[in-house]
Amino acid sequence: MLKDTTFLATQIRAKKSFLCIGLDPDLEKIPANFHDFDQPFFEFCHEVVKITSHLTVAYKINIAFFEALGPDGWIQLEKLVKVIPDECLIIADAKRSDIGNTSKKYAEYFFNRLGADAVTLNPYMGMDSLEPFFQYKDKWSIVLALTSNPGAADFELKHTDKGDYFFEEVLKTFEESSYKDNIMYVVGATKAEYLRIVRQHCPNSFLLIPGVGEQGGDLKQVILDGRNFTEGLLINVGRKILYPKSVNTTMSDVLTSAEDYRSQMAVFF
Amino acid sequence: MLKDTTFLATQIRAKKSFLCIGLDPDLEKIPANFHDFDQPFFEFCHEVVKITSHLTVAYKINIAFFEALGPDGWIQLEKLVKVIPDECLIIADAKRSDIGNTSKKYAEYFFNRLGADAVTLNPYMGMDSLEPFFQYKDKWSIVLALTSNPGAADFELKHTDKGDYFFEEVLKTFEESSYKDNIMYVVGATKAEYLRIVRQHCPNSFLLIPGVGEQGGDLKQVILDGRNFTEGLLINVGRKILYPKSVNTTMSDVLTSAEDYRSQMAVFF
């Protein structure tokens, strides 16, 4: 594990920050001057990285936004990964999963070729669908447990015949496996009341927490209920940092917003 | 719906075939002469399409195998979609899902830019995570229900507090929605004993059935238990058609294997 738990805890304490900045580039929202570039997504995200890397522990790249552009999006994505400083964890937010021989191809792409440190994964198809990712011992697999969207109620929050929530079944299955040391879990900040249940199942794991910011999750509650002895939290903020104003956001606004989130976190150190 | 239920039923009856050919191009397995091309995946798949399109109702393109190549893989993928004849359904086997604004980007790519007729989707995150796909009324959304891999036992086959299998909860949720007319479901052929349960929940839907061939599912049982009044089945065979021999497969072997599967199906018409 190149960027292991100790590495992450050290970064979090040094920066007094749990911040993970979500890179969700959107042509309709990025500052107008980036539209003149041949590779506006790369250029915009590169600028964001340059001005925020001292404030953040990780970057979570939203793969869909690059994929939507076709082959050129992947070219910009591959350039972007190369310019993110080594001190930051690079998360490919791809939510992949498939049968084993297919998951192997996804893992090869995201870990070997792209060079991401971590990739988000969907657990629905079960253990063997994610094993090709888990087998990369120097990389992180980040498994969806309880997501931040309303649809989490449809299946994740249904009860099993044992009385557990379905997302608990997911946590138990992976925590009982030999792979647990390189697995993190996604738990939405909008579901902060469930964080204590999550921590019963995986007290030692890192959690990736989306849903603070645009989706309205409570930052303080997440830190109080989710933090553990290795810090154990990466709190993602995407749109509220990239596009803090509804129109005419500047890079200075981006910096101010990132500093503001980091300040709200620094008081806990 | 451009290639709707009636269109598919008509194709299936005309061709006497439920066949969906899985395009899973693998450099280690394709005939050696394709290695000399700049775009071996495109060239190989294009040849497969040329010699098999009269036998098959659909092609299921395994996106991971193209994604693994980086930007060049997406260029080959986009070329491939353009050469598949209109009479065949084009399925992007991508197993995507995410929160709404992100799923919207995936849907834009696969339906609008790539031009696929259908995309496979993972239901874990619930209804709102897939709605951006469902809103394309002239396209098919193909939701994972019960997959063909052993890991299906981990979650899909767990019981809910109501005594149902978890995959039944998935089927019920989508069948009760207003989107059901453009949803198909994935049900693995290796789980043929569950097909009757599946059909109780979605008697009218098309099912995409992987797991015949390499994974050992029983073709006859699938047809007997899965077929409905609009035929209702797309039976995927990938590796057993693309690579029928363990070494030195030729295009003639590919044709022979596709003809053999189609013959096994034709006796049911």
Output the CATH homologous superfamily of chain A.
Aldolase class I
Estimate percent helicity of chain A.
40-55%
Describe the global form of chain A: globular
Give the biggest beta sheet of chain A: 8 strands, parallel, barrel
- Tell me which oligomeric state these chains represent: homodimer
Number of strands of chain A: 8
Write down the secondary-structure element order of chain A: HEHEHHEHEHEHEHEHEHH
CATH architecture of chain A: Alpha-Beta Barrel
Overall pLDDT metric of chain A: 96
Which chains share the greatest interface?
Answer: A-B, 57 and 57 residues
Protein structure class of chain A = alpha/beta
Binned strand content of chain A? 15-25%
If helices are DSSP runs of H or I spanning 4 or more residues, what is the number of helices of chain A?
11
Architecture overview:
Two copies of one chain form a homodimer. With 269 residues, chain A is of the alpha/beta class. In chain A, helix 2 (40-52) packs parallel to helix 4, helix 2 (40-52) crosses helix 11 and helix 5 (100-113) packs parallel to helix 6. Chain A has helices spanning 5-15, 40-52, 63-67, 71-83, 100-113, 127-134, 166-175, 195-201, 219-226, 239-242, 251-266; strands at residues 19-23, 58-62, 89-96, 118-121, 140-146, 183-187, 207-209, 233-237. Chain A has a single domain, classed as Alpha-Beta Barrel (TIM Barrel). The first copy, chain A, is built from eleven helices and eight strands. Chain A has an eight-stranded parallel beta barrel with strand order 1-2-3-4-5-6-7-8, surrounded by five helices. The interface between A and B is large, with 57 and 57 residues.
